[in-house]
Amino acid sequence: MLRVAVIGSGPAGLYAAAALARNPDTSVDVLDRLPQPFGLVRYGVAPDHPKIKSISAALQQIVEDPAVRFLGNVEVGSTVALAELHRHYDALLFAYGSAVGRSLGVPGDELPGSFAASDFVSWYCGHPDAPIDSFTLAARGVAVVGVGNVALDVTRMLAKSAAELTHIDLPDHVRRVLANSAVEDIHLIGRRGPLQARFTTKELRELGDVANADILVAAEELERDGPDAGDDIPPVARRNLEVLREWAGREPQGRPRRIHVRFWQRPAEIHGSDRVSALRLEGTRMEAGGVLGVTGETSVIDAEMILASVGYRGLPLPQLPFDPDTGVVPNSDGRVLRDGSVVPGEYVAGWIKRGPTGVIGTNKRDAGETVRALLADAESLPAAPVRDPETLLKELAHRGVTVATWPN
Description:
By secondary structure, the protein is α/β, with parallel strands linked by helices. It folds into 2 domains: 2-99 and 314-398, NAD(P)-binding Rossmann-like Domain (Rossmann fold), CATH 3.40.50.720; 101-308, FAD/NAD(P)-binding domain. It has 14 helices and 18 strands.
């Protein structure tokens, strides 16, 4: 019997568990520091996207497979050491993600009111780590820096009225704050042009469906790439540009909130004495070789809250190799590398393997690659000395750890 521990119960971890469970004579324990599975599907998808959240139903089938056992409240490096897991499992597959938002890294970034967008997402999704009082939304102006789908999600949630929130599944404390929000102006800021934006057209169009907000787009910033950027424009970017041009031609309707969509602007400095009060922007342009340069033009927008949606980074686990520059675990086809050499019995999948790229389905292919590598190595892996699957649970219980199972 091949015994494998998967660390992380988001899509990558559970897709890996499913692929392993299809292999005869294999048992899989899925370990997670949280008491419930599903990772960012549960705590990272905007609550007004129930169709994406429905992926949880498919992931739940994986957790309920007889060959798969979920063990929550188990944090590697704290609750249990890496060396201890090697005593109980023939292989360890790390899929714990890269859910920490990157900061802007500009002067004033440390001021109260400056957040990673991922913190706001965790709060409105009810993540256990997010304090109830994380956000008050007393700000009238908010700057959302970044033009990916997460930036669109947080902008949309900020722009909706109390009536538009009625049928959305939200924690009570979040609903109260959003319904009484003082926000009037939301500035969605891209450091490059619309052709380089990372959002999908579906998500972009949803922003235009918010009944509570006018969308204001500076037409001249849409053409900075050149009107004949031409036939080389990818289809998604072309469709995005069509949507943005249509918005640029709209007349404001005097709605309660305004979404200002800006391109070719980068944050230069956050103003404020004891908390955020404004954001200074520098104009940007594309230079030779695709390098981003500055124009010398500056502007200041009033914003008492800033949400940085400029990517995610992974965090290291004790005793697991980690590249701080790339924010991933060094690997070859999912096999963990230490100083360029394969570490026997250690594997990686998902964002902590490749970085925070792709959509939920990307993790299925990624996990499949890693599982194929693991199974190809299976016969050569040293067997774990402890074979009883209940021993680890007994050891954790002896330390006072209440392991959460699923279904519980």
